[in-house]
UniProtKB/TrEMBL annotation:
Belongs to the UbiH/COQ6 family. Its cofactor is FAD. One of its GO terms (biological process) is ubiquinone biosynthetic process. Pathway: Cofactor biosynthesis; ubiquinone biosynthesis. This is 2-octaprenyl-6-methoxyphenol hydroxylase. Pfam families: FAD_binding_3 (PF01494). Signal peptide: none annotated. It comes from Cereibacter azotoformans. The keyword Oxidoreductase applies. PANTHER family: UBIQUINONE BIOSYNTHESIS MONOOXYGENASE COQ6, MITOCHONDRIAL.
Length: 399
């Protein structure tokens, strides 16, 4: 079979990989994007990703340049306020409530929230309109051989591809990263996360609420109304055995438990989807680049789902790659370009993972003394307006 030449091969068709394909194609590069599984683009379909993603302010210009934001904006719920609730007292009820309002630092919301399955649906539809993209769902990266001038990739259907740049966006168990022999450091917390959607009688008013008691945060993120009722996406982090116990409960018992864990802030919660479960880890690659290869998204870094950092860090990887591609048109995909990418991103990735790790450990605290210390610390941070504004800007990833 003849070898196909392309500027970029994106290995991985998750949200990050699809965004990369659209962004590079919109910048004029030819792209082949492959993924082992056909995309699941319905909430009811088996294997649907029921997590949601908050697209923070700095990610929007990238999505606009890629032509994606006009498709996504009509489905997005704005996130105006980030509410932190400490419910670590003797009974599960709020004892400290602090609101971080985007109006304190910007005329726009912190970001906009969308379900992951819907993101993939709209992104796949957009790729079909781009002549520079060859999207191949159901096709995996089978083998990788790199040399100074190109990456030679064989796909699962036997197609051979020569790419000037190979982008590994193929997840936390990245086959491309393994093929290049790039090591990872993994930290396991003994936690799992339950992801699902709910409806509730009290409107969320575009407030994302993170409730801390023990085991990990319980986070309600605004969604557009569902069936005429206010709706939210929930990520409920718990120690592994407890998460599995919750998942196995009958529907009525599960709804009672989640309403109690939410402190009843939005009224009785009604389950509106199936429940996904996945393990919580921190993971960072030893390097974010190899010969003719850039690692991005979960191939490069994984962290607990706190503070809407995950995909937005992935899009920060992509922004850096796009900027370096524009600066290295004459030596696109070269060692100089990829070394610059590693230097630009790796330190920030490690710093953010450390910060999220500390927040997660604080949220897991079960001992009353540690929970009291957490509540005191939250109050102290919020009490200083300059510190509060600095924390909000840091969360967005802006100076």
């Amino acid at each position: 079979m003849a070898r196909i030449a392309t500027d970029i091969l994106v290995s991985g068709g998750g949200v990050a990989g699809l965004t990369a394909a659209a962004a590079f194609a919109s910048a004029g590069w030819s792209v082949i994007c492959v993924d082992p599984q056909p995309p699941v683009t319905s909430a009811e379909a088996e294997g649907a990703d029921l997590r949601s993603t908050a697209l923070l302010q700095p990610s929007i210009p990238l999505l606009q340049a890629a032509g994606l934001w006009p498709r996504l904006a009509p489905h997005a719920a704005p996130l105006q306020v980030m509410r932190i609730v400490d419910a670590g007292g003797p009974v599960p009820e709020p004892r400290v409530v602090k609101d971080f309002d985007a109006a304190d630092i910007s005329g726009q919301p912190f970001g906009w929230n969308l379900p992951n399955w819907l993101l993939r649906r709209e992104m796949v539809a957009h790729l079909k309109t781009l002549k520079k993209v060859d999207f191949r769902p159901g096709t995996a990266t089978r083998s990788v051989l790199t040399r100074e001038s190109e990456a030679l990739v064989t796909l699962s259907d036997g197609t051979r591809v020569s790419a000037r740049l190979l982008v590994a966006a193929d997840g936390r168990a990245s086959p491309v990263r393994d093929a290049l022999g790039i090591a990872v450091r993994t930290l396991r917390y003994g936690q799992k996360a339950l992801a699902f959607t709910v409806t509730h009688p009290i409107p969320h008013e575009n407030v994302s609420t993170e409730i801390h008691r023990s085991g990990g945060p319980f986070t309600l993120v605004p969604l557009p109304d569902a069936g005429g009722k206010p709706a939210s996406a929930i990520v409920w982090m718990e120690r592994g055995a407890e998460a599995l116990r919750l998942k196995a409960l009958p529907r009525a018992a599960f709804e009672a438990e989640m309403t109690a864990r939410s402190c009843g802030l939005l009224g009785p919660l009604t389950l509106n989807s199936q429940i996904n479960v996945w393990p919580i880890i921190s993971q960072v690659a030893e390097r974010m680049s190899g010969e003719r290869t850039a690692l991005m998204a979960e191939a490069a870094h994984v962290m607990p789902p706190i503070g809407a950092q995950g995909l937005n860090m992935s899009l920060a990887d992509l922004r850096a790659l796009l900027e370096l591609a524009a600066d290295h048109k004459g030596d696109f995909g070269s060692a100089a370009m990829l070394d610059a990418y590693h230097r630009r991103r790796h330190w920030e990735v490690q710093a953010r993972i450390l910060g999220i790790d500390l927040l997660n450990r604080a949220s897991m605290a079960g001992d009353p003394a540690w929970r009291d210390l957490r509540a005191t610390f939250l109050g102290a941070l919020y009490g200083s307006a300059p510190v509060r504004r600095t924390l909000m800007r840091a969360g967005l990833g802006v100076a």
